[in-house]
Amino acid sequence: MTTTVTAKGQVTIPKAVRDRLGIAPGSKVDFLRAADGSVVLTRADKKQPASRFQRLRGHAGKGLDTDAIMAMTRGEM
User: Fold this and answer.
1) Which stretches make up the SpoVT-AbrB domain (predicted)?
2) What is the pLDDT of residues 15-72, one digit of tens each?
3) Is residue 72, in this structure, part of any structural domain at all?
4) In-domain check, residue 33
């Protein structure tokens, strides 16, 4: 996809890219330079989803047996 840079240095992010990244008016974006010199656009204000292990940290609770804890770590609960 190609877009044109305005005199102010602005570009329009194509709709397909905005939809894919969940970018809406007011969203914050980052431009990251990759090792090969290319630039990658990412959404900066979107929280990264917690991994299933992060969600469980400190929440095992009392009375859970090993099978229940293992089911939780596998995402079965």
Assistant:
1) 1-46
2) 998 888 888 888 889 999 999 999 999 888 766 555 667 666 765 556 777 888 888 8
3) no
4) yes
DSSP secondary structure letters along 29-75: EEEEE-TTS-EEEEESSSPPPPPHHHHHTT---SS--HHHHHHHHTT
**C-alpha separations of 77 from 43, 49, 68, 70 in Å:** 30, 18, 8, 10
| Number of independent structural domains in the chain | 1
In degrees rounded to 5, what are phi and psi of residue 15? -55, -40
CATH number at residue 25: 2.10.260.10
Q: Range of 10's domain?
A: 1-47
Report yes or no on 3 lying in a domain: yes
Are 43 and 22 spatial neighbours (Cβ–Cβ below 8 Å)? yes
